[in-house]
Amino acid sequence: MTFDKRIWRTRIKVVKIRLQQQRGLSLELLRYKGPIHCARLIVREEGILGLWAGAAPTVMRNGTNQAAMFTAKNAFDTTLWKKNEGDGQVLQPWQSMISGFLAGTAGPICTGPFDVVKTRLMAQSKSGGELKYRGMFHAISTIYTEEGLRALWKGLIPRLMRIPPGQAIMWAVADQIIGFYEKTYLTNAPL
């Protein structure tokens, strides 16, 4: 997914998170009556940019996640299986799954603070007065000061239950496709 699409989807996530916060409330207590009502209320109270709350930490999280994951995958392939980029070796699917699973843990660990801040910025509204967090750096500072360092990694366990298994499967498939391509097109290509 490209940078533009992720930023564009941020506004949908803001609405989703605001609606999720209401779960368990009786109908009379619901602030938002549905997605369209929620989006309209956000725009009316916070301006159009309210729909893009959390865009900066989303970009930071996604970029850091990709850098950590690809770097870790390459390091695990080299360390565990003596596989180097472009050496023609194709890992067994189970080897790719192990490296992919381990690499999939690196991303959430490195990006925990950005994920927490993204969610907090998306969840806050002006309905009670002023916003608690004025931006990404203010949110990191406030969370650290009020709740401690560990609070910046809240929700890490559920992310680790979701992301590494998916990365294991993705890398098992990707490495086989890349290996097939390299053997079929690169090793037989005239120089």
TrEMBL record:
Database matches in Pfam families: Mito_carr
Sample GO molecular function, one term: succinate:fumarate antiporter activity
InterPro entries: MCP_dom_sf, MCP_transmembrane, TXTP-like
A single cellular component GO annotation: mitochondrial membrane
Each Solcar repeat, start to end: 1-79, 91-180
Origin superkingdom: Eukaryota
Transmembrane segments: none
Protein family membership: Belongs to the mitochondrial carrier (TC 2.A.29) family.
Protein name: Uncharacterized protein
